Every structure is written in C-alpha cells, then in structure tokens.
Amino acid sequence: MDYSKEPTRILENYTVQKGEPFNAEPKLNLLIQSFLTPTERFFKRNHGPIPQLEADQATVIQIEGKPVLEITAARLQQDYPAVTIIAALECAGNRRLEMAAVKKVKGVLWDKGTIGNASWTGVYLSQVLKPLLKPAWYESEEGWTVEFEAFGQSEEQPSYVASLNLARIMNPSSEVILAWGMNDAPLSRDHGFPLRVVAPGIIGARSVKWLAKVNVFKGKSNSFYQQRDYKLLPPQANEHNLADWWDQFPELEELNVQSVICDPLDGAVINSEQGLLVRGYALSGGGRGIQRVEVKFAGEGQEWHNADLFGVHQAPGKKWSWILWSVKILPPFPFTKGELICRAWDEAGNTQPETCTWNYRGVMNNAWHRVKITTIARGDNKSLL
Ligand SMILES: Nc1nc2c(c(=O)[nH]1)N[C@H]1C(S)=C(S)[C@@H](COP(=O)(O)O)O[C@H]1N2
Ligand SMILES: [Mo]
Questions:
Q1: Inter-CA distances, 170 with 135, 167, 273, 364, Å
Q2: Quick one: pLDDT at residue 370?
Q3: Residue 46: per-residue pLDDT
C-alpha cells in the first residue's frame, strides 16, 4: 500500500501508535486543554493510506444496488439546510492498552486519547435519504441497512466499509450527518475531506471518512468491519475459536459510559499541601448525558468526591458532546503512594464497572480509571524529587 502521500501532521501533539496506517492519539495533558478538540490534536485512526480527493468529488447514493443520486459537499450546501452539532467521536478501542494488561488483545494498543470533541457541520443524512426511500423500509420493516463505502484502500479488505441500521438513521433524533466541516473549517484530509459521516453517540468506526458511496439495502452489510471486527465478544472467544463466535453477536453501535483522569498523569508526584486538582473527560453513548463524575483514593473506607462538570446545553436524547470535569480534593490524603480512581454515571443510571471484562478485540473498555500518584508535603520536596 502506498503511504508516500500522507498529509503533514503536528507530531509533537501525538503519541503515534502506528505509522502506516497512521494511528495517533494526542497526549492526555493536551486533550483536555480545550472543550473543542483542535483538529491538529484530534486523534487520527486509519485502516489505510489517506486518499487525495478533490473538493467536488461526488458521493453516490444507491438503493438496492441502483445509483439514484450524486452529491457533493457544494450540492449538499445548496440543497439542504446546514446543521452544526458538537459531538465527541470515540474509537471503540479507546483504553485497549489497559485491557491488554489482563491478556493479549488484537489491535492497536490505544491508551486513553482516542477521543475528541468537535463541532461538525453538514446535513442530516435522513433528509437526503427520505425522498429516495419507501417509509415502510424504516417504519415497519426491520433489517434495512445503510452502508458507507470509502474512497482509498484499506488493510483488511479493498476499501473501508461500515454501516448503520436504516431505522436508526431515519429517526430524526439520531442526528447522523454527512459532514464537510470540522471546527468551522473544511474537513482536513486526515479527517475525511471532502465528505464524511458523523454518527454521534456511536463508536467511531461507523463515522466513515472520504465517503464514496451510501448503499441502502435490505439485509446486513458483510463488511469485515461490521462482521469480523468491532463486536463485543465474550471472554471465551479467543484467536483459536473466533470463527464460532463472530456471527453470534450483533455489530456495535452506541458507545458506553466512560470517564478518564487526564490530570494528574499516571505516576505524578503531587504537593499535598496545596490540595489535589483532578481533571478529565466523560461521555456516554446514544445521546445520554453525563450526570455525575466521582473521584476517590483507592483503599478501604475512602469516599467518592463529586466533580464539577463543564459542558454545553444539548437537547434531551441528543447529548453528543463530552463533558470536562474537575474536582479539588483537600488534604490530608490517605497515603503517600497510591491510586486515584474515577467513574461516571449517565442519565440512564449506567455507570462504569470496577474492572473490565476482557474481550479478544479489546473494545469498549470503560472500567474505573486509575492513576498512580505520590503525594508529598513541600518540606519533603528535596528528598523525593
Ligand atoms: N474511510 C475510513 N473511515 C474511517 C476509518 C478508516 O480507517 N477509513 N476509521 C474509522 C474509525 S475506527 C474511527 S475511530 C474514526 C476515527 O476518525 P478520525 O480519524 O477522524 O478521528 O474513523 C472511522 N472512519
Ligand atoms: Mo475506531
């Protein structure tokens, strides 16, 4: 595969997990410096080389294999009302590295930075599709699929293809958009120029970049990325018996509830006299808002401290944005060396499990997040630092 025409990136912002295809996550301290993640710090997750496309590259919409409409970003801007939504994008493999500590997993060993929060501008896919469809396909029939096919090559099959259920897309509150803009600028090549899908509240894998085709049909997509990847398999499924398991479980769609401590970083040394400021991000899937984020020290009898949450107002069922949170914990601290823990609760009462359930692909890890810290009083500074 040809990786000689990749765009330039600001590499200091990233931990590069893989050069080809380019897979990089921003450093955690940078990640929470702003509510909207600047594009040059947004995680980049690719299954192949970045295609070079023109601004007027057309995307073809097909119904049951027949082309019915050609769209470009310019045509969408002309023919439909534009919408801008703030939505977090999170890779299902976020925090895979921590799961790999339990047992080997297959995939890029992502840490906690494969998430970003951006404003996306485009049009509702439901509006584009509606005049082309029979309502029965999404109102009463089950099993219709909208498949998104990308330009460019992919490592696991000729091109990257992912899909979503048609009924979900046609439900106006799902807000799946065809986007040309990210953070008030045209999409960059890395993020899907000229047109991508943004499926808020859903694992990043379904937000297909460099959109070439939208295929609507009855049945399921047989894309590798739908049927042999991005599924939550039980822990009994392993590299020897995988074939028996893939078809037994559905394709992942909505994200789960998640929170991560981004500051202090793992291993930090804290001056305990000044109190401890703990900060991070949290989000949930399916438009469910975050209601509470809690932080505590590991150990018997420790209490959870409630964090202050910073977000934007979003309509019920459309809470796609992440929230940033912070909490100041005053001394005395229960230890000089130990762990800080966080967990979030969403508005459906879902919370994060204390530990993860290992799965072969290392997806959807949302266990309580822990960082190791050392606390010292100022007088001890010299001896410890
Ligand atoms: N065409 C194409 N679209 C794609 C991918 C890809 O490799 N090719 N990766 C998917 C995955 S797994 C994720 S998590 C998101 C990442 O989007 P980003 O690179 O804009 O952050 O894009 C999705 N869309
Ligand atoms: Mo992903």
A1: 9, 5, 55, 26
A2: 98
A3: 98
The Cα–Cα gap between 11 and 347 comes to 37
* Residue numbers of the chain with a pLDDT score lower than 50: 383-385
Instruction: Looking at the CA of residue 203, tell me the nearest atom of ligand 1.
Output: 14
Rg (Cα) of the chain, in Å, rounded?
Answer: 22
Question: Could you list which residues have their CB under 5 Å from ion ligand 2?
Answer: 45, 91, 204-205
Coil, strand, or helix at residue 298?
A: coil
Q: In this structure, are strands 144-150 and 185-186 parallel, antiparallel, or unpaired? A: unpaired
User: Edge-to-edge, what's the strand order for the sheet holding 308-310?
Assistant: 258-263, 276-283, 323-329, 308-310
Q: What is the pLDDT of residue 273?
A: 85
Q: CB neighbours of 350 closer than 8 A, spacing ≥ 6?
A: 256, 257, 284, 288
pLDDT for the residue 384: 46
**What does the pLDDT read at residue 274?**
82
| Protein residues whose CB sits closer than 6 Å to any atom of ligand 1 | 42-47, 89, 91, 150, 160, 191, 204-205, 207-210
